[in-house]
Amino acid sequence: MKLRGNLVVLCHEGERLSAVWGTVQKDRVRVRGWLAAEQPKGIDGSDTEGVGDWVASSLKEAGCKARACVIAVPRASVVLKRLTLPAAASGREGDLAGMVQLQMARQLTMPLQGAAIDYVRLNSPQTESGEGDPTELLAAALPGDFVAHARGVAKKAKLRLRSVALRGEGSATLFAQLSYTQDGPVLGVSVTAQGVELGIVAEGRVVFSRAVEIKPPAELAGWAAFTQRVAVEAKRTRVGYRGTGESGDIVCIAVLGDDAMAESVGKSLGDELGLPWQTVRFPNAVELPSEMESQSRAVLAPLIGLMVGAAIDRPTYDFSNPRKAPDTSAQLRQAVLAAAFGFIIFGGGGWVIADQQLRSLNGRINSTKEQSNTLAMQYIRQLRAEARVNHIEKLREPSVDWLDHVYYLSQALPPAELARLESLSGVGRSGVGFFTLGEGGAMSEAKTLQGGQWVASGGASFTLAGAATREVADELRADVVADNVYELSTRGADVAGKFEYVLKTSGKKPMAVSGESDTAESGQSGGAS
To answer: DSSP labels for 384-430?
Structure first.
């Protein structure tokens, strides 16, 4: 949706209202006013009508005359998921929206009923034939009650709601130009009135973001402690970004603003992360009031960035008008309506029958949709329950059959008159992983519950120590190595009359003991074949 003309962008976070308004034109933004107000004591933040009245009175007192509005929601209210769709997927937006809905339904823990789900592409669209690289998306989900609250506040404040946007996208718009000039991702930092938002921006798009509730200090004396805490969260953001599997590391730090706070935060982050840093100011296309202080510019920068994004038609999230999957029932409804129209035109009095049939079909469609939603939720719960049960079962499985291993080793030892076993000790290893079984038995880490299974792994390490002649000890070592059941190594230097061997295996049982029923499992051991 293109946003042009007079526009007010506002954000209600915690007990604070921030707003900025002005004129949005193609490739140009003129800011005319702003406000920052604390929520009165008698108003509950969840009371839609009370917040709406407060917003209306605050904007009126500040001199805002714009009626079209964009409500920005903070990062903490939105769930972001990075999705990779196969190259064979259709590039049409309608089909893509349906695939995103399905993937989010599998991965989100919150109920999707009423939730607004939208997405932005991280790479170029595919060709019509479906050829090309997999489609990279960053999907966002906002709970339905947040969207309903935003609509109610706008209606009560007598504003025309044009969009419900993610506030961090405004910061990303201002960081975009810098990211295009770097050889890798940029860590963008924006300090708001209620906390700090950190986003990784690569080639103009946000690929990873976090929000931290660290309220900036009002006095200069508290800046040192504040910047130190921001540096710690920046390190956590960097580690979290690396955990997503991205190959490129952060190459630069960018702090939104041109005040002393931005300079202090940038210097602290640069020193802690060992990276170059710089502050990011507004582009020349933004006209700001001369009386607007630098601190106000820094705090309101994400909201102004949303206005800049609207001016340049930047693709972004719109939770009030999210992209939707195609209506698969439209063709059926159109056919039914056409038939009803034919009955009315050509059948005269038969319109009553057509109306009854239409009502019946619409009822069946609604019933089928409700049943489909119910079954989908039941299926997801069933997958989770089965995964938990299988996980517990695999954890309870013994990783090593100690008796079989001890029996096997006792059979391999020389007679008592030739050697004396002084000690036998063993240490077990166990673990459980969630994998997908592919062609040829190859296993890869499972990304979703569907198609994955828990696989137990284990093994053991034994230490044999005793007394024997050098010839007997060497013969014992040669026999164990020849069986290909254990990986054998000698602990310490060879000493006449003594031996101490370390035997390792990844099998639950030794091959010689387990027999044919455990061949596959014993095949896991180090030397077995």
So the answer is: HHHHHHHHHHHHHS-S--HHHHHHHHHHHSPPTTTEEEEEEEEEEEE
